[in-house]
């Protein structure tokens, strides 16, 4: 018979209680009406859900190796392609700042990372302080600010800081992109 950790701990606690009761002169078994049946409890701990930041398979453009102070990965797709939150996160800020164009910055407390999405087609669909779920729409790919064609400039930063230490987002994006996709049934 397979016994879970919690069930075994519960059984040990009952045994100690009944032994102590017997030493004190009490009964060694519970009354028939008070029989306790221990059931194992399963707790599933899931890894935080992370998704690719857009609903498309992009071409990869300039990354950190492009020089000129380029601190992210450019993902080239058609204008209007939906952008989504990479993870359960909170919106740190949004805006339409010069070179960044329309942008949104999301903080993922589980990973202690900030994700910056630049050059969006229109202002972000979420507001500062709003909590988002992984996969929730945040905007669309565009070419606003300082850019040369429709793309998402995606940055990955350490901590809760839109200007925190830069991490190379390319391996992170490839891991998200390589995850199994749901099976689509149909002819095309």
Instruction: Report low-confidence residues grouped into runs of 5 or more.
Output: 17-23
Number of helices: 2
Strand content: 15-25%
Q: Largest sheet, described in full?
A: 8 strands, antiparallel
Average pLDDT over all residues? 82
Provide a descriptive summary of the structure in words:
With 188 residues, this protein is of the alpha+beta class. Helix content is 15%, strand content 24%. The strands form two sheets. Strands 1, 2, 4, 5, 6, 7, 9 and 10 form an eight-stranded antiparallel sheet that branches. Strands 3-8 form a two-stranded antiparallel ribbon. It has two domains: 45 residues, no CATH class; 119 residues, Glucose Permease (Domain IIA). It is globular.
Core attributes:
two-stranded antiparallel sheet; 188 residues; Glucose Permease (Domain IIA); 2 helices; 2 domains; 10 strands; globular; alpha+beta; 15% helix
Concise summary:
The protein has 188 residues and is an alpha+beta fold. The protein is built from two helices and ten strands; from the N terminus they run H-E-E-E-E-E-E-E-E-E-E-H.
Which helices and strands, and how do they pair?
Layout: H1 5-23, E1 59-60, E2 73-76, E3 82-84, E4 89-95, E5 102-108, E6 113-120, E7 131-132, E8 137-140, E9 152-158, E10 166-167, H2 169-177
């Amino acid at each position: 018979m397979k016994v879970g950790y919690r069930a075994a701990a519960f059984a040990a606690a009952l045994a100690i209680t009944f032994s102590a009761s017997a030493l004190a002169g009490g009964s060694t078994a519970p009354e028939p009406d008070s029989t306790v049946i221990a059931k194992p409890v399963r707790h599933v701990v899931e890894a935080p859900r992370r998704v690719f930041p857009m609903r498309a398979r992009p071409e990869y453009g300039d990354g950190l190796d492009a020089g000129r102070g380029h601190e992210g990965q450019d993902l080239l797709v058609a204008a209007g392609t939906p952008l989504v939150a990479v993870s359960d996160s909170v919106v740190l800020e949004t805006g339409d700042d010069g070179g960044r164009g329309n942008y949104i910055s999301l903080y993922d407390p589980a990973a202690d990372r900030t994700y910056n999405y630049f050059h969006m087609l229109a202002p972000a669909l979420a507001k500062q302080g709003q909590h988002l779920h992984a996969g929730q729409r945040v905007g669309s790919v565009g070419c606003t600010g300082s850019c040369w064609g429709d793309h998402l400039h995606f940055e990955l930063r350490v901590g809760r800081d839109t200007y925190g230490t830069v991490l190379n987002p390319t391996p992170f994006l490839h891991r998200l992109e390589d995850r199994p996709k749901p099976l689509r049934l149909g002819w095309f």
